[in-house]
Write a structure and sequence with these properties.
single chain, 112 residues, mainly alpha, two-stranded antiparallel ribbon, 4 helices, elongated
Length: 112
């Protein structure tokens, strides 16, 4: 996670101040304080989520799952993933398409 709890606390205080003054313009003091506290909690949680998300994006765990070839769990994971490589049949496919174009002319297929 990036930063520390002070970022969350600062965001919560900013949220409290903004929410309190917006609510105080049209409500009584107690209602404004309650809404300010709700704003503090909301901004605190949003800052925590933002810090957590940025921490995941900027510091990815490459070997965090333990499925690498050098990991002790490699024997347990053997055979769970399969890499398949097929032959390149590009030329055969091109020949097949060319012969199909010769048989189909102007909407009528010729008899073989």
């Amino acid at each position: 996670m990036i930063g520390n709890y002070r970022i969350n606390l600062g965001a919560g205080i900013v949220g409290f101040i903004l929410t309190f003054f917006v609510a105080y313009s049209s409500n009584v003091l107690m209602t404004s304080l309650i809404r300010g506290l709700i704003g503090f909690v909301a901004w605190f949680v949003l800052a925590y989520g933002l810090r957590w998300g940025l921490g995941l994006l900027l510091n990815p765990q490459i070997e965090g799952n333990g499925y690498g070839y050098d990991s002790p769990n490699a024997q347990d994971q053997r055979g769970s993933q399969v890499d398949i490589k097929i032959e390149d049949d590009g030329q055969e496919l091109n020949d097949l398409l060319k012969s199909g174009q010769n048989r189909f002319i102007w909407g009528r297929s010729s008899a073989i």
